[in-house]
Amino acid sequence: METNEKLLVKTDKPKHKGGRPKVRVRRETHVKVRLTATERFLIAARAKDAGMRISDWIRAAAKAAKVVARLKPEDLQIMRMLTGLANNLNQLTKLAHRDGILTIAIKCGNLLIEIDQALKYFNSDDRQDT
Questions:
Q1: Considering Cα of 37, then 43, then 49, then 52, what sign does the dihedral take?
Q2: What tens digit of pLDDT does each residue of 31-47 get?
Q3: What is the DSSP letter of 8?
Q4: pTM as predicted
Q5: How far is Cα of residue 7 from the mean position of the Cα atoms in its chain?
């Protein structure tokens, strides 16, 4: 029984180790970012205003940031097409001023018929798969 009492006494007392408390989240990887002196000053000022260290502020800012993906090749193609359409509209406006609106309306009507026929062709099952 004596040994059991000694064990109880030893386990009842918590061990107080000195030193810094253990960190809950251990950050083991590093990211290097190059900044200009102005950018560094701006980030340091914002971190100070928030009462944070620079690394904590950058971490919080990165987590809260909304990332907008770059345009995909298909999106760029559509943007180019829209730019072309805007140029065509500008040219039609100039022609309307020069030749009259009725001439342009007839040309636009014919063009719309051709576009409609092309779209019907691409949407039909009659064309051959390549």
A1: negative
A2: 999 999 999 999 999 99
A3: H
A4: 0.42
A5: 60
